[in-house]
# Entry
Amino acid sequence: MKIELKNLCKSFNKKTNAIDRMNLTVEDGEFVALLGPSGCGKSTTMLMIAGIYKPDSGEIRFDGQLVNDWEPKDRNIGMVFQSYALYPHMTVLENIAFPLKQQKVPKKERMERAKQAAEMVRLGHVLDRKPDELSGGQQQRVALARAIVKKPKVLLLDEPMSNLDARLKIEMREELSRLHKELGITTILVTHDQEEAMMLADRIAVMKDGKIIQYGTPMDLYHRPSDFFVAQFIGTPPMNVFRGKLIGNHLHFLNQSAELNNEQWNTAQGELDVYVGIRPHEVKLGKGGDIRAKGIVQMIEPVGHAQIIRVNIGDEQLRLFAEPTAAIEYESEITVSFHLSSLHLFDVRTGKSLRKEIMKESQTEEMVG
Amino acid sequence: MGSALKKWKLPMIMLGPFVALIFLFFFLPVVLIVILAFTNMDSAMRWEFAGLANFQKMLEDPNLFKIMKNTALYVGFTLLINVCFGFVLGILTTYYIQKEPVSLVFRTIWMLPRMSPPVVYVLLWLWFFDPSEYGVLNSLRALFHMEPVAWLHEHPMTAIILANGIIGASFGMIIFSSAIKSIPKDLFYAASVDGASQWSIIKDIIIPAVRWPLMFVTIWQFLSLITSYEYIFLLTNGGPLFESEVLALYSFHKAFQNFEFGYGSAISLVLVIIALIFSFMMWKWFGMQKMMRSSKIE
Ligand SMILES: Nc1ncnc2c1ncn2[C@@H]1O[C@H](COP(=O)(O)OP(=O)(O)OP(=O)(O)O)[C@@H](O)[C@H]1O
Ligand SMILES: [Mg+2]
# Structure
């Protein structure tokens, strides 16, 4: 089912909008992740799509049909709530079978399908327990099973894996991904975990203060963030950021200056404060790149396949990945370098990217989205 | 030994007065009733032990069967109205009326009779049931050209059940509505996403959540109904004859009208025993042990 949100607004008090003129299109069968800081309105958006909150203004369309006034039960959705919302006096099996019971599925088939769903989330062994006899992760999986058991047209998942351990998380992701491919359910996933969003989602919508800042494929968001907020939010470890100044097409930062290509970058009229961003993995040891800097090693973090090095350049910090075999010592001075083309530039005042192609792309995206 | 004394001295001093008070006002009456029940004390106030004579008399009392039946009917139906009506009001003012100010006004209206003195409340009912054509019910009948009816004479049980049922509903309403309000909102949301009907939401979410309050209200109302009689006393005084007399009122009549304190106490003792048995049954029935069981977490 194709979901469209048009100019959606919702406020809980008279002063601010929790959701502010939001536009989002989720294609039929697409997997979309909503990513954003706490309190930005992700759950509110989900509850509006589910029909539990009524929008103050704007449209919600399923397959082109206006559904603003449809009851939740008529929307054919499955939902995992952030609080799980399991029925406390029912056993795990009864919880999972509850949506089927409401659809008047015969008892035998109902139990069969509920067991299957429970198996899928690895809960076959706790079917007779009550929710308060389960761990947080188990409860979360019951909620997931309950959401998918009726094979809905739309799946809304509000942080469905936040309480699982690393291995289980990977298993559940794979299950979700498989399920999504098999059944072609249009899925919206709310998550704090950008890795999860990157892995599962066809497209990611980054939200802030009730608005969508950027909506695009994971690669788009990673390589061409249109906004400083997105650039900072996506990627671990986060993007390195320096303060800089753009004068005409001359960029001054880290005590040096570089000339920017007019075709790639929007240049400044006069002087402009900018954030200069560079992804840690774009920074190399040695003098290979266009821009070089000397720094003092502050921290070395081995992460298995690599080590993360933190260096101080003047009073600014920079992180980079180094080969796990590279012999680097604390407090030693090293030279790092990177290419001008892998820089990201953002206007300090507006937060917008100064890269030209992005401006175009994000504009078209805005029109599509 | 000495150290134990030291340890308990302060608690004893602090708790002493309360223990004494509890003994004086809670325990002593029961003890007194038990003792008095075996005497034939009358207005002369002499303690004369009479063995089981009072209970013998009770078995032979020609009115007692009628009174027992009245008590069962009265307590049963009033309790039903109290609890069911209270529950309906509770759901109405929390689940169906979501606007808090509206439901607050609504609840307050239902509380009003509880806040007004019983005499005033009963006066309203007396006016309602008045046998002349000026009574509320009779003036309604007059609209259809029907003869006035002496309601309190012809349907005394119905009258006392209605009057008590309606005033008692507010208690259940308050308890139930706060229990329903404490159910997490997300449960209702989840149920509506899962396609639950209104009936299913009441049956599968609200009722299980108010199991405890339901037991509490049932037992509490039962105990207060079986032992109190002021509304019956004011409305019909058990009459006509023994048509609406219940055990508690009978005990009062015996003790303070006929001054048969011994016999009145024996009746009260029967009441206490019935109340104990009933409470125990409810306890079992609502599966107290199961609720008390601690949860196992893997
Ligand atoms: N029922 C409500 N009443 C009043 N304000 C609310 C309500 N629900 C949400 N809000 C407000 O709306 C804003 C968005 O809340 P929402 O729950 O959608 O955030 P979220 O993005 O899901 O955050 P989190 O990641 O912490 O779950 C918050 O500022 C919150 O305080
Ligand atoms: Mg949330």
Q: What stands out?
A: The first helix of chain A runs from residue 42 to 50. The pocket of adenosine-5'-triphosphate (ligand 1) is lined by residues A 12, 18, 36, 38-44, 82 (CB under 6 Å). The domain at 3-228 of chain A is CATH 3.40.50.300 (Rossmann fold). The two ends of chain A are 16 Å apart (CA to CA).
